[in-house]
Amino acid sequence: MDNPQEAQAPGPNLLDLDLTDCEALVAALGFKTFHGRNLFKWIHKHGVIDYDAMTDVPKRLRAALADHALLRLPRIIHSRPSADGTLKWVMELDDGQRIETVYIPEEGRSTLCVSSQVGCALDCAFCATARQGFNRNLRVGEIVGQVWHATRQLGVAPSNVVMMGMGEPLANFEAVVKAMAVMQDDLAYNLSKFRVTLSTSGIVPNIYRLREVSDVALAVSLHAPNNALRDQLVPINRKYPLEELLPACRAYLAGDQRRKITWEYVMLDGINDSLQHAKQLIRLLEGTPSKLNLIPFNPFPDSGFKTTPPAQLEAFRQRLMGSGLLVFTRKTRGDEIAAACGQLVGRVEDRTRRGERPVTVGLPTLPPPGGEPPRCHAR
Ligand code: SAH
């Protein structure tokens, strides 16, 4: 059994429920569904998890909930502030696994970086989470619980949520979709579709599925402009190569002129940062409404990579912008508390035994930068 909670639970954890589920539960207990709305609102909008404080919920229903449901959240174990205002919370789950959540305040907005899995199974070459291995998917309540805690701790809901913490959100599809719906619900955190972003390394079938059930913004971890290099850096590319990924992304936008794919591109010195790579990137993204985020590589012990020097990064950026692409360089935030992209590790009891495999420093064999980019963009 994945979660010990399931063994002892007298009923569902209310944190795992969306509005419809809450209404259904209340109806099943013999009460009017609008009490389900109130219950949902108490938990998420008001941050109340003590039944006694839910004054407009009938006493008999409160008693029934106490008997037939749970109200469980992850526990905050540490809270680490960084000099630049970034805050990292380490949260412990019922089975002792730990995840990390990062809050990044900026001028006029604040972003919460939320985890979707304990560890990650995808093994991207430059990511610290990948080195931890993988334990399990997070449940809805463990994902929403991160937003719940941040909102309580800060006194206000973050203005943006990005599913960019530990894990691959599209590998935990149902729970992530439901959790994002709770984030968007106006009785809960009321975030618009522009303010919830799912980031994926490119699980193509689930990009198509996502389009059917959600309208959140989509970010894709690209990191390489051709299959040969991306196969090495982001191994899921061997299964879903660029010529499948790009059409899926365009389909996700489905002709909505206002929307773009945000491409994340980690800048690795001497690996993916030449002007030749920039040229390939321009060709690759032609015809796809795009915004490109260049992310300076955040180091971690034994990563085997270095970040691109600032002058080279700027030359790369200029080359891309010269073609009309929208390009931003992401500021590194929270790196001294290991809260930056790719530095989140939590405490993961690895089930993949990745930790026992030898660490390859850098890339074993680098494809030449001159490789042909796949011809997959719409003209
Ligand atoms: N699995 C999802 C969600 C993780 S998002 C995905 O791949 O999109 C975290 C982002 O940070 C991804 O773009 C990831 O590739 C990037 N990243 C990972 N390690 C990094 C590092 N050491 N430095 C900078 N960015 C990194």
From TrEMBL:
A GO molecular function assigned to this protein is:
rRNA binding
Q: CDD domains annotated for this entry? A: Radical_SAM
Question: What is the first-listed, main subcellular location in coarse terms?
Answer: cytoplasm
Catalysed reaction(s) here are:
adenosine(2503) in 23S rRNA + 2 reduced [2Fe-2S]-[ferredoxin] + 2 S-adenosyl-L-methionine = 2-methyladenosine(2503) in 23S rRNA + 5'-deoxyadenosine + L-methionine + 2 oxidized [2Fe-2S]-[ferredoxin] + S-adenosyl-L-homocysteine; adenosine(37) in tRNA + 2 reduced [2Fe-2S]-[ferredoxin] + 2 S-adenosyl-L-methionine = 2-methyladenosine(37) in tRNA + 5'-deoxyadenosine + L-methionine + 2 oxidized [2Fe-2S]-[ferredoxin] + S-adenosyl-L-homocysteine
Q: Which PROSITE patterns match?
A: RADICAL_SAM (PS51918)
Specify the Radical SAM core domain's residue ranges: 106-336
Keyword Amino-acid biosynthesis among record annotations: no
So which cofactors does this thing need? [4Fe-4S] cluster
The entry's [4Fe-4S] cluster-binding residues are: 120, 124, 127
Question: Region Disordered: what ranges?
Answer: 351-379
EC number(s) per entry:
2.1.1.192
Sorted keywords for this record are: 4Fe-4S, Cytoplasm, Disulfide bond, Iron, Iron-sulfur, Metal-binding, Methyltransferase, rRNA processing, S-adenosyl-L-methionine, Transferase, tRNA processing
- What are the catalytic residues? 100, 341
Pfam families (alphabetical): Radical_SAM, RlmN_N
User: Could you tell me what this protein does?
Assistant: Specifically methylates position 2 of adenine 2503 in 23S rRNA and position 2 of adenine 37 in tRNAs. m2A2503 modification seems to play a crucial role in the proofreading step occurring at the peptidyl transferase center and thus would serve to optimize ribosomal fidelity.
Q: Which family does it belong to?
A: Belongs to the radical SAM superfamily. RlmN family.
Q: What else is known?
A: Reaction proceeds by a ping-pong mechanism involving intermediate methylation of a conserved cysteine residue.
Q: What is this protein called?
A: Dual-specificity RNA methyltransferase RlmN
Q: Which organism is it from?
A: Candidatus Thiodictyon syntrophicum
Q: Which gene encodes it?
A: rlmN
